[in-house]
Design a protein that fits this description.
By secondary structure, the chain is an alpha+beta fold. It has 15 helices and 45 strands. The protein folds into five domains: 131 residues, Galactose-binding domain-like (Jelly Rolls, Sandwich); 107 residues, Immunoglobulin-like, CATH 2.60.40.10; 340 residues, Alpha-Beta Barrel (TIM Barrel), CATH 3.20.20; 101 residues, Immunoglobulins (Immunoglobulin-like); 77 residues, Immunoglobulins (Immunoglobulin-like, Sandwich), CATH 2.60.40. The strands form nine sheets. The chain has an eight-stranded antiparallel beta sheet, with no helix packed on it.
Length: 841
């Protein structure tokens, strides 16, 4: 059944404020009385929350403290008024983590054993004028200690007994998750008084049929006080259609049913390939005293299919192959697990701006809030949705376990029924991989829970969305990268050279490029709190992500590529010159990511998609995220932002065959452009060539750079006939109609610059732009590498930019608060000193 956003005549009262929280010894209060409760140590809180976020808000706990939130029972209580006794009154619980009992006025009204299930309880018979609601989330540790059948194979990621409980592994993975196990009412609790209609259930399916959009609607509802409808109308955008009304199987249930066709409907596209066109959907129930409107949200029309050609995995939308790129989504607040509509919107706008068109909601986490899927729909961002299973041998043969999984999955697929952004439903994360790596026999790698049960549910409830049983999966071994989906960390954790991105023949990387990405100075300062020296201080290392049971962490991985790309001794630099070490460390992971995506997006690549692990850090520090824990971009984000745009140029080193320029145009319109290629030695231009580019919509093309010049240039310095004639190649893609640079690529035949110059001739000038923003012009005499704009109170929409010799590049500064005059500097990685920002009003 589709999510019902609102029903006319229904009063909705979120029970958000006015709560109190207390902890009790596990199992002590099985049937709490007033006296028992009053003896607890209560403090104020708001819902939704977790025990950890409530303590954090009350300043009684921080992430530096290790607390076992699964060791105690946690109680929440709140008083509220009973409302209109003539209305149907219900309490809705969006999610209770994990083993929960709920009492209303001393009566047990709900018992839940699944964090991911929503509950609706008719409480009319229990309500008084003044009511006391108590929620108890029971200690999980005693339940984990109960003996159950052994797993056929075991994981080192988290306690194996968690496989029996439908709860998130987030907060319980010691190697990389903050120590805040989710316990409590983590989704909203709402009190509803229903007027003209009760128990509204809607089944709505939208599809693209030829050039038309079709919506099939079935709405079930119960009239109140003998009020009977005499008709119903469905509205989709500005198109309406009458529905047939009839009596349901159970009196007094009524059913309104029918279909609506939108002729010539514009399809919904991911934002990289078109416009994410959506239409509001609502149903009016007509009665003698007026109509009651049922708001069903929005939907779009699109076709979606899985592309498995040549053992690969891919996504085809509206009959067009789409290169899916983006990141693995992480919660906006890793302690509270939630975010408001505004914070979701801000985070997803950063995703869209970066050229990302897909996010993966991963198995170790949880289903996201409705606001997340709504914003992805609106912004044209695809969602790869793992069901929340990861790395464990789940008891798929236990009927009780499977029954709660069925209810959970049905609830999720119902509430996202109209979400056109949901592009893949995946059974789990790394279950097949874990089984294979733990030495289990091949017949145990794939469970019927994922190969049949979840596959059948997905097909029944979302037949428009492809299903994939596990990620990674599909090769001779589940984790091989040249078939199906891969978790590719060849470039990354396994310290392979950058060329491995091609050698591995990655088809679709649902995880890749995990590095301990160093945040900017403000985040480092916040972590260190004025004490200690990063990255030598223990606080830094505690926040460095690692795989369980290994002797290295992802700082070590980053240091390996620091030595490879910049030729420095990372360990020596870390101790002798911390600022230089941090500056190089910020940039190196961005260079690696940009280089890898250039390989995967080039013409002729068989890669159909790649998602970076993670989008956002779970807590302050050098985490996997390309955004820090507050949502501020790191250097890697800016590198990706340039590499993932729908229109892009890449330079690929083909050794003795020289440089190839690859031009990608994913837009629905042709691109009329010019490609300029310039060779520089120092500040002097050695050669320049230009070629017209006529890029048809949604195509890519390769140009051999050597063919653009009238004489030989050793562009890759492969022939080595004497010293190199140049040290920098710049490819600039210029939109002829607008006379603007739409993409730029750089190649360094002798490797990235390793030395710092005293004077690059770098100038940075700020002039006012619209709405309190400022336009910074960066001009340089010599090549300026990874120029970072450090301006307090402003965010640079692009940063860590390369500026070619003699060129000017512009960057917009957006104010983070009240409008002000910018003060700051521009720092090039290859300069010994920063350049002061000049401001001209």
């Amino acid at each position: 059944m589709a999510r019902v956003c609102s029903v006319g005549g229904t009063r909705v009262a979120p029970l958000g404020e006015g709560w109190q929280v207390a902890a009790a010894p596990a199992g002590k209060l099985q049937d709490p009385t007033a006296a028992d409760l009053e003896a607890l140590d209560w403090f104020d809180a708001s819902v939704p929350c977790t025990a950890a976020s409530a303590l954090r808000a009350a300043r009684q706990w921080s992430l530096e403290e290790i607390v076992d939130f699964d060791a105690k029972d946690w109680f929440w209580r709140r008083r509220f008024e009973g409302g209109n006794a003539r209305a149907v009154r219900v309490l809705r619980f969006g999610g209770l983590a994990t083993l929960a009992d709920v009492w209303l006025n001393g009566t047990l009204i709900l018992r839940s054993e699944n964090m991911f299930v929503e509950h609706e309880v008719d409480v009319g018979r229990v309500l008084l004028d003044e009511n006391l609601l108590i929620v108890c989330c029971r200690a999980l540790n005693p339940a984990l200690a109960v003996r159950r059948p052994r797993a056929r194979w075991r994981t080192r990621l988290a306690p194996n007994q968690l496989r029996w409980f439908r709860t998130s592994l987030h907060g319980r993975i010691a190697a990389w998750s903050p120590p805040a196990a989710p316990v409590g009412p983590w989704r909203p609790i709402v009190f509803e008084e229903r007027g003209a209609l009760t128990a509204v259930r809607a089944n709505v399916r939208a599809r693209l049929e030829g050039n038309d959009g079709v919506v099939d609607v079935e709405v079930k509802f119960g009239p109140i006080d003998g009020w009977m409808p005499h008709g119903a109308i469905v509205h989709v955008g500005n198109v309406s259609q009458s529905l047939t009304c009839r009596a349901g199987d159970r009196h007094p249930e009524m059913i309104a049913q029918g279909s609506l066709r939108v002729a010539g409907a514009e399809p919904w596209w991911p934002h990289t390939h078109g416009v994410a066109v959506r239409h509001p959907v609502s149903v009016e129930i007509l009665g003698a005293d007026g109509e009651t409107r049922i708001d069903l949200g929005h939907t779009g029309f699109r076709t979606l299919s899985r592309r498995d050609a040549d053992d690969g995995f891919g996504i085809r939308i509206n009959h067009t192959d789409v290169f899916c790129r983006g990141a693995c989504w992480t919660p906006i607040d890793s302690v509270a697990l939630t975010g408001g509509d505004t914070t979701y919107r801000e985070a997803l706008e950063a995703v869209r701006s970066a050229g990302m068109n897909m996010l993966r909601v991963c198995g170790p986490f949880f289903y996201e809030a409705d606001a997340f899927y709504d914003a992805c729909d609106e912004l044209g961002i695809l969602v790869w949705q793992d069901y929340p299973f990861a790395n464990m041998d789940y008891p798929g043969d236990d009927e009780g376990f499977c029954a709660t999984v069925d209810r959970e999955v049905r609830g999720f697929l119902d509430r996202t029924q109209l979400a056109c952004s949901v592009a893949v439903l995946c059974g789990n994360s790394e279950v097949e991989q874990q089984a294979a790596m733990m030495g289990a026999p091949r017949e145990l790698w794939r469970s019927p829970l994922f190969s049949r049960r979840l596959a059948d549910l997905s097909k029944e409830l979302r037949p428009d969305v492809p299903y994939w049983p596990s990620t990674p999966s599909g090769g001779a071994l589940p984790f091989f990268s040249d078939a199906g989906t891969a978790h590719y960390f060849g470039v990354g954790a396994y310290l392979r050279p950058l060329e491995d991105a091609r050698r591995a023949d990655v088809r679709f990387a649902t995880e890749c490029l995990a590095f301990a990405n160093v945040p900017d100075e403000h985040a480092v300062d916040a972590l260190m709190e004025g004490h200690g020296t990063p990255p030598q201080d223990p606080r830094w290392k505690r926040r460095s992500p690692r795989d369980g049971g290994v002797g290295w962490d992802f700082d070590d991985v980053r240091d390996h590529y620091l030595g490879t790309l910049f030729g420095v001794d990372a360990l020596a630099t870390r101790y002798a010159d911390v600022p230089r070490y941090l500056a190089l460390s910020r940039v190196v992971t961005g260079e690696v990511m940009a280089s890898t995506f250039a390989e995967w997006r080039r013409t002729g690549s068989r890669c159909n998609g790649a998602l970076v692990w993670f989008l956002r850090d779970l807590w302050l520090g050098a985490g996997w995220g390309v955004l820090d824990s507050e949502g501020y971009p790191k250097a890697a984000y800016h590198y990706l932002k340039r590499a993932l745009q729908p229109i892009a140029v890449f330079l690929i080193d083909e050794g003795l065959n020289g440089l190839d320029a690859h031009i990608v145009n994913e837009r629905a319109e042709p691109l009329d452009a010019e490609l300029h290629v310039e060779l520089f030695r120092g500040e002097h231009r050695v050669a320049k060539a230009c070629a017209p580019i006529d890029a048809r919509p949604r195509t890519s093309q390769k140009i051999r750079v050597a063919a653009m010049f009238d004489q030989f240039h050793d562009t890759t310095y492969s022939y080595r006939f004497g010293p190199p004639a140049h040290d920098l190649t710049v490819a600039t893609l210029l939109d002829r109609a607008r006379s603007v640079v739409v993409s730029e690529a750089f190649h360094f035949p002798r490797g990235l610059p390793k030395e710092q110059d005293f004077d690059l001739g770098l100038q940075a000038t700020a002039t006012p732009a619209a709405e309190g923003s400022w336009r910074v012009s960066l001009h340089t005499r010599r090549f300026a590498q990874s120029v970072f704009l450090d301006v307090k109170g402003f965010a640079a929409l692009d940063n860590y930019v390369h500026v070619p010799p003699g060129a000017t590049r512009e960057v917009i500064l957006r104010p983070l608060g009240a409008a002000m005059r910018p003060q700051g500097s521009a720092r090039a990685l290859n300069a010994t000193a920063a350049t002061k920002l000049t401001v001209r009003d």
